[in-house]
User: What shape does this take?
Amino acid sequence: MAGGTQPCPFELVRQAHYVGCLKRSETALTAIVILALVALFVGLRLYSVLGERTGHEQQPILKPADPDARVESHQAAPANAPISSSDGADMAYLPTAGPGVRALLAADPSFDVAHFLEGAQAAYRMILEAYWSADLETMRPHVDGDVYATFAKAVAEREKEGLKLDNRLVMIEQAVIAEASLEKTAAVVTVRFEADIAAVTRNAEGEVVAGSLSDAVQTRDLWTFRRDLATRDPNWLLIETDEEE
Assistant: This one.
């Protein structure tokens, strides 16, 4: 041919095949690079969120159960069960009075220790205040003949001397059953009262001759009450008073 040698048809085919293979290789390489970049991006994101895991991370510490933590079961106490405690101010009766209290409960299931002590404290306050104010008629239904006679005699002597008591029961700190017994159908219970009393004695002119309202004195009294369980009368009668030595 004029102007130069023309390439062989087979050479053209080989060149075309080479160019096609080269283009496919470049496409595959590009795809691999893109996938590698995507994988690197994902890896960096996971690292920024989760952090580096070395295998030596501190495991979460589980706090052991507190050995002193206990679930208290609240069981309803029997309605007529005696109330007792070894804690001073919360004691309902002394240990030595336990057998007598249980005997009383067996004879009278309606007896309630807490209710009895509430009534005893009310009687203690009422009888003392009646005695201090010389109001014998108020106390009379609540005391027996001997106790009434003792109080009445003391009031008469006080009035004869022209003296008046201006006492105040500041507080009853404690009231516990010190003794209890059952004598046939008669229940006898001695209560130990610990109270603060401000005692003042005035003359006929109202002048203070003894004591002070600003200085309460602690007293410990033993009062004995009796009730006949054979009767329907729920009231207890004061049959004896004494001071604890």
